[in-house]
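Appendix B. Chain record.
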Amino acid sequence: MQPKNAIVTGAASGIGKALSHLLLQNGYRVMLADINFTALLDEFSEVDYDSSLFHLRHLNVSDLSQWEMLIADTVDQFGEIDYLFNIAGIITPGWIEDTPLSQIDKHMDTNAKGLIYGTKLAAEVMVLQKSGHIINVSSLAGIAPIAGLSLYSASKFAVRGFTLSIAYELAPKGVNVSLVCPDLVNTPMMDLQLDYSEAALSFSGATEPLSAKQVAEAILKVMKSKEVEVCLPAKRGIMAKLGSMFPTLGGNLTKKLSSKGLKQMKSFKRNTLNFYKELPQE
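Structure tokens predicted for this chain:
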């Protein structure tokens, strides 16, 4: 049976890296794309997978011309696009009055506009095929607004609204669209947030963040179930939707949850420091 073909953005680290490994282990042919091409090479240039199964490509998702080349390249290499996984993203916490204006464009261009570019171009191919599945990764911050992460929340709200809209558009044309909204995930983006007290609300959930592999495994399940929206964990998703439905309630909980989040951040920082102390010294 012919292997299925996929594109993964943000493949060099975090959720994208974990998902890429799972796809390759399961025999998918994958176009692995990331803005950090050096990290992509370091991760995948010496792996044991069949080299015919994957290609490494530089991609700045905010650059339309690079998306056009990647989509054309994927069709040329694989013939069809069965899956697009939009995972690449950025986060820079901060209070809005202190946020540089440049961060507005950077968040919207990377997290929202870049994802829309890729989805639109892949949808053109998939509609002609009358098949395909687009899976976009948002966040619980794209369901409930997060103080201290206003730009990130805004971009992820855009991702959610766009993804749910096109899910309804494309379903009659044979193309599935799904949205995955995880809580805090143990990735380099989480490590970055540890340096910002403004990000406290991100750490107000469970005592342990999700692992990138857990989210990747959930995405594999979505590939089979074709669910339109999945929140991880489901209970936190329900809480996020309630907070979004009743903004006053969400606002009243902010102070309490921020205090809890700050305590969690300190715990995570200690665990990170202890981890590095225990590494063998060269």
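Further analysis of this model is presented in Appendix C.
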